[in-house]
């Protein structure tokens, strides 16, 4: 059976995008009264020595990433970038435009991702890495390039190289919002929560910057620790010094904290503040809270107004049973966050559970394994997909790889046992299949407070037993009626529906 995609513990961890997309999303705005202790002198000298596109772009990127909007030298460099027709990349033009935008309304070109392509192929990623290496050799003291190359390394599962590059960026500038939040997201990705927290606390701006503060509170929540910045966060929200957009993640983080504590009234107040002018992260968090029974009232029109709201769109469509729309949004989400596990789980689950589109599910999961090559849950779900699609050789190959992974958690082990049972059934090894499913069902029954894995194991077993023997168990209706799935257990509901349809066909 498939490892489940529900994420009951979603937190407002910063999304890690390219500098271009972060700029276009408005997440590097600073209040006009904020002091930015960053010196552009080195970049200015390089630009003055050589008026090239390379040095102009480096100066502009450094200015934008550090919230320095009124530097005349940087603005001259931005104009130079925009005048290099046919030579500039989309990223370079977007960042230059953002520096020259006087109204600061975030009205920059949006990142358009193709739906028919899950993400750039591995060859393209290596080409990007090669290009960035050449830039770094020419200009080794620009921290932004190390962040960008770290992101590409993460896409292909080379996390050690990614960490190495990110540490260089932090060494060059540990007080840059873009760098600190990107680093925190990387360290969360590799499950080093303490390091993620350290990076954020080391940034002196964390006590004054709502974006950094939101991240610190959320990472601490992942660590199951209380943040010392909570009172300051509330004060920032009430200060009137920041736009609702700049406070959206902070309000969302505090709303999540109150939700976890069980104080729903206070949680709702913070979430409502986060929705005044949300970014994609705070909007997705609101969708998560709503799905977990927090009484929030907003509709799809809110999602449509928010740039890059792919995750929120996917969650919204999924809850509304619009699975084709949910899959499309999940693919966009995967394009946007190719290192993240959640769009993989969500997109693949929609494909194999609701749409019975096994080829798309396999493609999504294989992409997930490129960024997370040792993730046993992805291996299990891919083997499960292959088995459902009748590709038993491929299913066995991937399940053997999963068997070699060390330290597999209890839930994944249960899923692996059930998937081995599925493969055995499909290979006509019925007794072995039964034994493996019984093993999974027994182990899943011991999970305290979460019957979903047990239900999934039972339902997968019933389906395979009927398909293999062409017999309908006498107590099947009683068993199905005993499974009272919660509203969030949509996969369980669909499995029950599939089994009832199968029984109906056999009884005709």
Structure description:
This protein is mainly α and about 500 residues long. The chain has a domain at about 345-505: Tetratricopeptide repeat domain (Serine Threonine Protein Phosphatase 5, Tetratricopeptide repeat, Alpha Horseshoe), CATH 1.25.40.10. The protein is built from 27 helices and no strands. It has helices at about 20-25, 40-50, 55-65, 70-80, 90-100, 120-140, 145-155, 160-170, 175-190, 195-200, 210-220, 230-240, 250-260, 265-275, 280-290, 300-305, 310-320, 325-335, 340-355, 360-370, 375-390, 390-405, 410-425, 430-445, 450-470, 475-480, 490-505. Helix 21 packs parallel to helix 23. It is globular. The two termini are about 30 Å apart.
Detail the topology: elements first, then pairings:
Elements: H1 19-24, H2 41-49, H3 53-65, H4 72-82, H5 90-100, H6 122-138, H7 143-155, H8 159-172, H9 177-189, H10 193-202, H11 210-222, H12 230-239, H13 248-261, H14 264-274, H15 280-291, H16 300-305, H17 310-319, H18 323-336, H19 342-355, H20 358-371, H21 376-388, H22 392-403, H23 410-426, H24 430-445, H25 452-469, H26 476-482, H27 490-507
Summarize the structure in short.
The chain is mostly helical. Helices cover 66% and strands 0% of the residues.
DSSP helix count? 27
CATH superfamily of the domain at 344-507: Tetratricopeptide repeat domain
Low-confidence stretches: 32-36, 103-116
Global geometry: globular
What attributes does this structure have?
508 residues; single chain; globular
